[in-house]
Every structure is written in C-alpha cells, then in structure tokens.
Write a structure and sequence with these properties.
The chain has five helices and two strands, in the order E-E-H-H-H-H-H. It has 181 residues and is mainly alpha-helical. Strands 1-2 form a two-stranded antiparallel sheet. Strand 1 and strand 2 form a beta hairpin.
Length: 181
C-alpha cells in the first residue's frame, strides 16, 4: 500500500464518509491537535514508571484515537466509528481522585517546572486545552458528541494532577507562583 495518494496536494483532505474539506477547516485542526496530543501522551507513557498511570495513559491514547475518528467523520457520514462512553470519563476522574488522595492540598498556582517529566505533563495539558478549545469552537456550528468535550476537559485536569503527582513521587518540590507586588 502506498502511503501517499496525491489527493491532498491541492490543500484538501477527505473526512470519513468521503466529504472533501480544506486542510485548514476547523474540523481538521481539531482532530489534528487531538493527534498531536496523542503523540505527546506517548512521550508521557515512556517516562511514567507508575503502573496505574501507565495503564491510564494507554487507555487515554486509545480514547484519543476514538475522538479523532469521531472528529474526522463527516456529519452526514453513515460509516460506523468507535464511540466514547461515560465510563471513559469516569476512568479519568477515578485516576485523579486516587492521585489526589496522596497529594498535599493545592494552596497556590504552580509553575510547570521541576523535572523533564513534570514539564512534559504540563505541555500535554496545554495541547489538550487547545484541542478542547478547537472542539468547542467546532461544536458552535456542527454537532459534536458532548462526551468529547467533557473527556478533553477532564483529561486536561488529569494531566495537571499527573504533573503534581509526578513531582510528589519524584520528591521534587512544586514550584509555586508568587506574583510580584
């Protein structure tokens, strides 16, 4: 199978279902950013030594492919794509709650710093927030499954807490932000 088709050489691409759209279309930006996030989650998985979070990150990568499939589908497409479920959101919430049980109470804003692993968690969180903004923007004009937006919102929370938890298990002090006066 050839990897190149030459069909996108004029700046258009096909959605699932065959509809052609410009490569700058908000839908392409949304699932492209989700793909970028998925790749970054792969970096986090390679650093993570905690088996629970390694497993959660594996699930997250699978769900991000699901979200990408949903976003890459033309609204009128009759093709069957994987689906996102409430249980996928609950997996993230449970992981957040489990990590928070061990973490000290958050009393200040923290800077995304401390170690390379912690910083990667925060970069992934920022990419996730961008993906969420793009999907919300897309949902203003096209129907998007509500769970997609909720999942991305919860995932960014998970990545924030994962950064804190990574600092905790590495015994790296959190870098608090103290605004100038």
């Amino acid at each position: 199978m050839k990897i190149y088709t030459k069909r996108g050489d004029k700046g258009e691409t096909s959605l699932i279902g065959g509809k052609r759209v410009a490569k700058y279309h908000i839908r392409i930006d949304a699932y492209g950013t989700t793909d970028e996030l998925n790749s970054y989650i792969g970096i986090l998985r390679s650093f993570t030594t905690d088996n629970l979070n390694k497993s959660v990150l594996s699930e997250v990568q699978d769900r991000l492919f699901t979200i990408g499939s949903l976003l890459a589908s033309a609204p009128e497409s009759k093709m069957i794509v994987p689906d996102l479920h409430t249980e996928d959101i609950e997996l993230l919430e449970n992981a957040i709650d489990k990590m928070n049980e061990e973490l000290p109470e958050l009393r200040a804003f923290i800077l995304p710093a401390g170690s390379i692993e912690i910083s990667h968690c925060h970069v992934a969180r920022c990419i996730c927030r961008r993906a969420e903004r793009l999907v919300v923007n897309l949902s203003a004009n096209e129907e998007i499954k509500e769970e997609v937006i909720i999942y991305l919102n919860r995932l960014s929370d998970y990545l924030f807490v994962l950064g804190r938890y990574t600092a905790f298990i590495q015994h790296v002090p959190e870098v608090e932000w103290h605004p100038r006066k």
